[in-house]
C-alpha cells in the first residue's frame, strides 16, 4: 500500500440467479461482486468481470439493507471502517473463505455496459494487496483487460483449464467508447498491437502499452457514448462517477 490514500469506485456487479453452487445459501439476496476501479467513465465498455482463481474471497453483509458484497477479507475489513458499514469496524462474513475459482462462469449485471449481462472469468495478475480482488474488464481501454480476454479467446486449452464455456468468452467483443486521436476507438488493442503484446505474461511490452493508453486516453480521449458523448474524458469522468453513485450502482472506497 502506498503512502497516499487511494480512492476507488466500487462497481456493484449484481450476481444473477441461479447462483453458482458456492453462493446457493444466499439465494434470494442481493449479492454483488464489488469491482474496484479508477476509471468509472469506462464502464460503458464492460465485457466481463475478473477474479483471481487462486485468490480467497468471502461474502460480507455491508449495510443495513442486507446487501452482500463479495470481496477479499482485507477489503471487507477496510469497508467495515467506512461510513456505510452496519456496525463500525465489524465485518459480517456470511460465507467463506472460498476460492475465486468457485465464481467462474457466474453471470453478473455490469452497470452501464451494453451487454445485458457478462460473466466472471479468471485473471492471473490480480493481487490481493489492493482494491477488492475483483476487477471489471474494459478491453477497449485497458491493455491488461484486452490481453487477458484475448488470451482466453485465442487459447481453447486455457478455457478448458478453468472449465470456461465458449459462450462466456467468445461473444464479448471490446466496445468502442473513447476516441483517441491517432489511436482510434479501441486504443488498448491498438497499443497492444503496436508494442507487440502477445500474452498477458509479456509484462514489459504490456507496461509500455498501458502508459500510452492511459496518458492519451485521459488527456486527449473523447467519450463516444452515454449522456456525456462528445466530451473530453477528464471532463466527463467525475460526472459519470457521480451518475453511478446516484443510481446506486457504485460506492466509494478508500484504502
Ligand atoms: B481499472 P492501482 Cl479501463 N489487481 O479499472 C490488479 N489490478 C487491479 C486490482 C488488483 N487487485 N484492483 C483493481 N485493479 C485494476 C478499469 C481500468 C483500470 C481501465 C484502464 C486502466 C485501469 C477497467 N479494468 O487501471 O494499482 C483496475 O482496473 C490502470 C491502473 O490501484 C483499477 O482501475 O492504481 C486499477 O487496476 C487500480 O490500479
From TrEMBL:
Residues 1-255 form the Aminoacyl-tRNA synthetase class Ia domain. Belongs to the class-I aminoacyl-tRNA synthetase family. It comes from Cyanidioschyzon merolae (strain NIES-3377 / 10D) (Unicellular red alga). This is leucine--tRNA ligase. The chain holds residues 261 to 515 of 1090 of the full protein.
Amino acid at each position: 500500500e502506498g503512502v497516499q490514500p487511494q480512492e476507488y469506485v466500487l462497481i456493484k456487479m449484481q450476481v444473477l440467479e441461479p447462483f453458482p453452487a458456492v453462493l446457493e445459501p444466499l439465494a434470494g439476496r442481493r449479492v454483488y461482486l464489488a469491482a474496484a476501479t479508477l476509471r468509472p467513465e469506462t464502464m460503458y465498455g464492460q465485457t466481463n468481470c475478473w477474479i483471481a482463481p487462486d485468490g480467497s474471497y468471502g461474502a460480507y453483509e455491508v449495510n443495513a439493507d442486507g446487501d452482500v458484497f463479495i470481496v477479499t477479507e482485507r477489503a471487507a475489513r477496510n469497508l467495515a471502517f467506512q461510513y456505510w458499514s452496519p456496525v463500525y469496524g465489524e465485518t459480517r462474513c456470511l460465507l467463506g473463505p472460498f476460492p475465486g475459482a468457485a465464481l467462474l462462469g457466474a453471470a453478473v449485471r455490469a452497470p452501464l455496459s451494453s451487454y445485458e449481462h457478462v460473466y466472471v472469468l479468471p485473471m492471473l495478475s490480480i493481487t490481493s494487496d489492493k482494491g477488492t480482488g475483483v476487477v471489471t474488464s474494459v478491453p477497449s481501454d485497458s491493455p491488461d483487460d484486452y490481453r487477458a480476454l484475448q488470451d482466453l479467446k485465442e487459447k481453447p486449452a486455457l478455457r478448458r483449464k478453468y472449465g470456461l464455456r465458449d459462450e462466456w468468452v467468445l461473444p464479448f467483443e471490446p466496445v468502442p467508447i473513447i476516441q483517441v486521436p491517432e489511436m482510434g476507438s479501441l486504443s488498448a488493442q491498438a497499443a497492444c498491437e503496436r508494442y507487440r503484446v502477445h500474452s498477458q505474461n509479456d509484462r514489459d511490452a504490456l507496461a509500455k502499452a498501458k502508459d500510452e493508453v492511459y496518458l492519451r486516453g485521459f488527456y486527449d480521449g473523447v467519450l463516444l457514448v452515454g449522456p456525456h458523448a462528445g466530451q473530453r474524458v477528464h471532463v466527463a469522468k467525475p460526472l459519470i462517477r457521480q451518475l453511478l453513485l446516484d443510481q446506486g450502482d457504485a460506492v466509494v472506497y478508500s484504502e
